[in-house]
Write the structure tokens for this entry.
Amino acid sequence: MSRLIITGTSMVSPIGIRREDVWRNIETGKTGLGRLSRFPFDKEVLCGEIRDFDLSDYISDGRFRRAATISQYALASIAMALDEASATGSSVNTAMVMGITHGALGYTQSFHRELIREGPEAVSPIHFSDSVLNAPAGNASICFGFNGPVHTVLGGPETIIKSIMTACRMVYSGQVDRAVVASAEELNELSLYCYTRLGYPAISEGAGAIVIERERSDTKKSKCCLVAGAASECNPSDPDAALSSSVSLCMNRAGVQVSEIDLVMTCMNDPRDCILKGVPTAGLSPFTGYAFATSMIWTIAFSVMAIRNGSAPQTVIRSGKISRTRVKNVIVCTDDRQGNAAALLLRNDD
Amino acid sequence: MKRRVVITGAGIVTALGTGMETNRVKMLAGMSAIAEVRAFDSSRYWGKQGGEARDFKEAVFSNIDSRRLDRASHLLIQAAREALEEAGIAEILRNTPVLASLGTTLGGMISGELFHKEVIEKGLGRARISLLDDYLAHRQAINLFRELRLRGDFRIFSNACASGTNAVGQAFRSLQSGEYNIAICGGYDTMSEFVFAGFNSLMAVSPTLCRPFDKNRDGLVLGEGAGILILEELQHALARGAYIIGEVKGYGESSDGYHMTSPDPEGRGAAAAIIMALEDAGFCQVDYINAHGTGTPLNDVMESRAIYIAFGKKAPEIPVSSIKPMIGHLLGAAGAVEAIASLFAIRGKKLPPNINLDFPDPYCPLNIVAVPHCSCNITNVLSNSFGFGGSNASIILGEYI
């Protein structure tokens, strides 16, 4: 029975855009957070912006120059992930699953502001068509010529693991040759204001992507990161049970015991008192800030890098100490404390 | 071996009314619920018509505070309750995990509009953030879980006008593969001025009537509502003695990779989705096609071509109709509501008519059913949905035999 592996990863993040830069910056303890410069804001806030970004560095196709920022980030990250995966041949039988939380808030706000202030005659159809929630995924399918299923799955960080589960089913069943799972988020004045008022930590923006394929006999083992198991659960009546159940089911599917897990990666909250107690935990938020679903794709992309390198930088460790000399099993989990939880187990199996 | 998946319940809210029986009677009779939109001042728009669910009374909740809920949550929970009641499965779900697979293009957009209006009128500091409690689309799924005390998981698909069919199709796949035994699936969307203005700005709406496959067609009309199906794995349904109202036989999905707002004019992507659904269903005979049929010049020619690519010489024989002239285009709910209309056809042996068809377009040479039509031979129905960004989805529903 063939296995599913991650062959390409990418991060367009405040801490870096190229994989090597991300790793080096995190390893040296550099943070991607800084004072907001994108738009005027009524107070000084710390956030994670993407600076010096030019889509033409990643995509030569000029049709997307006016696309919403979120779409531009998504396109750049997908291009880099496909490049790393050396995704040769036709992209016709490629699926795309985009997990997002907010969509193109900038264009949405512009369109609605024009509508309210100036009336229906003044609105821009481009702002409308690029503000629909599936615009980043649609633009990606057009840009890269994906003819397989193209989905946009909505939600918080857990939606990325759900997107991976959807993508894995499509690849595993043979419906498609490969699947790209991506996420993107853009900073926006309204959302920044609301989340700051609600007490969220530094909000950020960017994108990330991974490429999932079946393992082949010619797959380079050094590039291999196995998708060993995944699970998600919604149980608002018992959030603790949702987390425990997701983690247990994920490990069960992967055939892994707690004692075999080297690292727990999370994108915001540390896992509560669940069966993973005692396993070292790590997270990227001090470096990247919080970008909702996109934080989860960064966490997963970074976990893949850690598995390939066989180690994780000490700077990301929040608690505990990695005991084994080589990081082999990493569980990525998320829990919104309202009953939405998900877990993904990644493994180096060479 | 793939598991068989059957339908044991359905619930619906459209401009024609709330509930299965009202919608069944009116759809099969060819009644239109399209009128000038009243939810906001539509007089400023080129196309003023829409299918508002005006008789829909907001649901009463037991386990969540309804004051801060968007209309989207009300529509969704109303349709889900009706579907669960028909399936007689509410008690079982207290102890059994369920998958909620839902499609929406807007989520709680009406709440978002209200918040943004307050920001513009009063300033950021005085706008009520509580208006956004139900703005994000996954909040409606969480509300569903809270109100009905469910556990399991949810997926929210937002693939423009294909969302509802994608949601049903993905639930079908989950049950086929053994991931779940029960799914609550479908879609919902509200009448939002943001979207109304957006489709008007694209010149995609009709200033008069929605006339799919008519040579004088000039655009779509928007609608609102929800459609929910309860899917069950066959043995699970049989073991509890459920009444089976239909079977999901096949599903296909693809992407054009062509243009953000225009379909591939040759219909290749749409045809790929139809062919995949046919293959999945074992190339069963299709007795009726519930078309996407938006009434836009581009869609209807493209869909006709796709049907010809998929069915070849049989294409002009298969009865085809679109229910959008009666209830409007329900965006994320369209595919789910149209799947329910397909069930009406299978169970009632009667086809919902494609009203407003006066002059059939020679570029759409299909067997369009323009008036209510009885037929004894409706066993399998294909329902198509195509959306912005080139999303294509087709599903085949059949009589349970």
The CA atoms of residues 208 and 335 of chain B lie 24 Å apart. DSSP finds eleven helices and 17 strands in chain B. The two ends of chain B are 19 Å apart (CA to CA).
